[in-house]
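1st attempt posting a full record on here, be nice pls
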Amino acid sequence: MSDASAIYLAVDLGAGSGRVIAGIMSQGKLSLEEVNRFENVPIEKEGGLFWDFEALWKGILEGLKLSVDRYGAEKILSIGVDTWGVDYGFLDADGKLLADLRHYRDPRNKGVMDDLFQRVSADTIFEKTGIQFMDINTLTQMGAVMQDPDSALPEAEQFLMIPDLIAHRLTGVAKCERTNASTTQFYDPVKKDWSRTLFKALGLSLDVAPELVEPGATLGMILPEIVEETGLSSETKVVTVGSHDTASAVAAVPAESGSNFAYLSSGTWSLLGVEVNEPIITQLAREYNFTNEVGVFDTIRLLKNINGLWLVQECRRVWKEEGNDWGYFDLAKMAASAERLQSFIDPDDPRFAGRCDMPAEIAEYCRETGQIVPEGPAQILRLVTDSLALKVRFVLDRLEKLIDRRIDILHIIGGGGQNDQLNMSISSSINRPVIVGPYEATAAGNLMMQEVACGRLDSLEEGRALIRNSFETKRFEPQHPKEWEEAYQRFAKLIS
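the predicted structure (as tokens):
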């Protein structure tokens, strides 16, 4: 049994794994304990890529049971759910899931965007949503649904995003939390509502769009059947957090009030951005393909997606199949041992977007572009981390043009922050200090917003003060600035 004054449970699902993490509030500090971790392995079938939602649900329930065993039901005040964005499921009139959940990397999304532009112009889409154009977006996925005669859409009562589907199973309440809604490219951040224009353009009824709810609100109490299955108290609340994992992660950036910072949520994706009060929906923002997603406390996350450690994950998968089961810390050490700044890739080249023989694709890219071809895993890994660091510089330069000011410091949050070699490379590439931590930013931000929902925190500033008081950070200073500047000029020419 814990001596904590309060315990909150974060259900945190990432693209590779899911966790149930306990947030323990004691003596003004938040500490995290991982209660249960389970794999999140996509399923390939019938030429498509799907999430195994029932396996995820099983892992969540197991985590809730273990939490009751560890802490006692009476101390657990609430549950909050966050996942990745853009993916969704259709529910029937009885609230049952109608079909398996498609993965955002599902191949049927390719080419759909061009068809969408025949229905509604790219200018209109960006004007109404402020969201960057990507094949993974819900709008594109829904365009693919409209082309599929076997889709579940005709029987659908509504759609829900994945964290909302989980909350619905816990409470019976079907609503869509706003931060995740904003990732869909169906949400208007100016009107703060679903875009009627885009629903109409697709021939999609607005009736399928769920009611929106703010982060930091009580959604409902857990259902009796969940109480029976897990042992949780019937008084346990399910609350809305930044249900888009990046929204929760950014909420946990330990920045001082008034500081001039950007953030990088480092993981499978690298998401680089700033907080602003109003969406920036300009021609330049569209040209640079930046996105305006909703954050907690009515903020806007002006950011850009960069293909992140997905590149390393795919390399690791290929090497594991070849018999080399290296861990991520091993891979970081291997990268650090190789000579820096030899060759580069554009991490966002479409060839690197889906599952592939990543080492072979990287080597071929270098051949095609007349660069030194990396030999062996260490050189490949160094090329990847150098390229990611330089792409951060490239995107940061554009971000500063959009906001018309220079960023003083970069906060790196998320699991990718454990890669010191990458952190050091990013600091050197942007020629600015980098502060890293917390690594579990998504879970920390989720739990922080549960404190808000339970009336124990009143503002983002208070929440970030709690994060600073609770978690250690690591600082990196730039090295070899001239060498990195020369490399950046080569890199910028390569990807232009």
